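Sync notes, pocket subgroup
Present: LS, DG
LS reminded everyone that the earlier model was apo-only. Rerun requested with beta-D-glucopyranose included. Inputs:
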Amino acid sequence: MKTEKDIKDLVSRMTLEEKAGLCSGLDFWRTKEAERLGIPSVKVSDGPHGLRKQDEAADHLGINESIKAVCFPAGCATASSFDRELVRELGETIGEECQAEDVSTILGPAMNIKRSPLCGRNFEYYSEDPFVSSEMAGAFVNGVQSKNVGTSPKHFMANNQEYHRMTSSSEMDERTMREIYLASFEGMVKKEKPWTIMNSYNKLNGTYLCENKEMLTDVLRNEWGFDGYVMTDWGAMDDRVESLKAGCNLEMPGSGGGTDREIVEAVKNGTLDEAVLDRSCEEFLNIVFRYVENRDETAVFHHEKDHETARRIEEECMVLLKNEDQILPFPADKKVAFIGKYAEEPRYQGGGSSHINSFKVESALDAAGFLENVKKENIVYAKGFDDAEDKADEKLVKEAVEAAAAADAAVIFAGLPDNFESEGYDRKHLKMPECQNALIEAVAAVQPDTVVVLHNGAPVEMPWIGKVKAVLEAYLGGQAVGGAVVNILYGNSSPSGRLAETFPLRLQDTPCYLNYGGEHDHSVYSEGVFVGYRYYTSKEMEVLFPFGHGLSYTSFAYDNLKTDRKELKESETLTVSVDVTNTGARAGKEVVQLYVAPKGGTVIRPVRELRAFDKIALEPGETKTVTFTLDKRAWAYWSTEIHDWHVESGEYEIQIAKNAQEILLSEPVRVESETVIPKVFTLNSTIGEIMADPKGKAVFEQAVGAMSGGSAQEMKDSQEGNGVINSEMMAAMMEAMPLRQLISFVPGVTKEALAPLLEALNM
Ligand code: BGC
């Protein structure tokens, strides 16, 4: 195995041209080799929910064929599992496939924050919540890398829209960046050390990510300890020399040597320090050799086995959104009409670079034929709609209505067609095709026991929600989605997915409705940290389904919420435990969600934020105690005064919740800050600010007393005496009064007299 020193030696033996050559790809998917020095070329492939290995006719839009592979559920689905172990297993499986196909790095996970449900690529991303996103991505990275294959978490960062993704600048303040958009990557990078990172196409506050030194070097490497290499998204290179200085190691795909020559030229003319190039090559080669030296030649791509894994995973991901009268699960002998094209041809993946050439696809109709407890003779099928164009086909609707009326129940397999959501463009609305909405209405009018199964990558509006009994969100569930859906419909397993994103009632309700997409290539994130449920809960808005929501075929009771202390310092940890019991008659899994709600404080914050979660399996009647450990970050916000995480002293509530809107149990704790934010008082500091500071208060009270000989009190008394202002009003006014105003309002106070006070305050 090559040591750090070996790699340094190797780089020292390379010519300038050879080193510059390592800074860009050989072609679409491969890195360059240097035969003379034993440096091999390695291959990377998309990602993220399966292998899109292209041998010929390469492209980054999923147009040309790749090898036959297995399409697993997309990120929108896997995040809903809230199950780290499951996502880790997915990573292991894909890692094994990569070894079998000699792919050094899988281009994923895709982990941008779902700022708006309109983003065309949300189906690949995990969540509107950075903690969920980071935890799920971390599990995936851990799984893949355990097979000695690299990952490339993407797209770093703030790539939250497809509209003008190659030129648009995502513009946000420092706190929003830290608490939401960087936080999505932070935990994953720190804990799992991804081998590579893919920088995004867009700009961040005006600077292309490929040449953003603050992001690629200061934050990623220096703060978070990233030690792999950064590659560009495909074609995201802007200025090669500047980006090398900023910390971008590899330009993908290759550029025919043009940018390599720019690097050589820059070293020769002194605008680029050769040491920067050397370091970049070392970082890159470390990873190349990590793969090559740990190559597993025995690995096999088990298509059939992985297909089964894809089905099992999807079963754990689907979210049962509604289940009136416990209509689901169906007994095996129920006569059910399967309606809708997706029962036969499921929509199970999204368009673009993640598009997998599935070796087979399992529809719900196929699965009904081979699952043991489903009797095929009890199922009839009517196509209902064809999504080639959004137009109701009266003949298809009539057949569907007749089939539904003649059956005991109807299941409509609906959702979004391919062209409604894809990489490369955003959605314009949250509607399903009109022909599908009309079909659901028509079927529900004749069949009271109507169930809708949704195949979509992002939230949709459901104008028919009150007319159907149940809704099962299958998301884009991978090539085995049909089997997974039927297993849930007929109760072979109990649904256990929870929404990792809010389903709003309508597009106009979404936090960035007025700004999403931006103008003239500036996309201003003016909703700040109020993304997703942070916004809806803080505004107490009604939504269609809240973040964290999901039903089960069994029921759970929560009890005995305990914290190991009532008060703690910010550097101490808090242990929280809660008992969860399966009170129903079947086995099931529950996602235990812990939110923290600050009570008071001087900073504008969301009413609650998810700080911990766990998924547990419970047999009927079984109780488990779930334990969480919270550290400083549970209470902290990003302070722009100290450019660091900061905890305000005060009360915080630990909330155990069914979802972001439904709190089941809560317990207060008091947290003491141990970090003093240095304050500089000026004549414009308000009395409120001074009095809020313990030292300031003491100095101020003493000084004012001495200066005015009680005249401040006199002024207060006289104002109150005239009956215009009561003491509360007075206190409020004083609170907001800058120090300098004492000169105008307190007899005897002069600017000169305030000078020693300021000095004492700032001592
Ligand atoms: C996508 C990346 C992908 C790359 C290579 C780009 O268009 O944004 O996610 O990995 O193409 O296909």
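DG: Residues 46-47, 60, 107, 154, 233-234, 353 surround beta-D-glucopyranose (CB under 6 Å).
LS: The chain has four domains: 45-252, 314-521+530-538, 556-672, 687-761.
Action: DG to write up.
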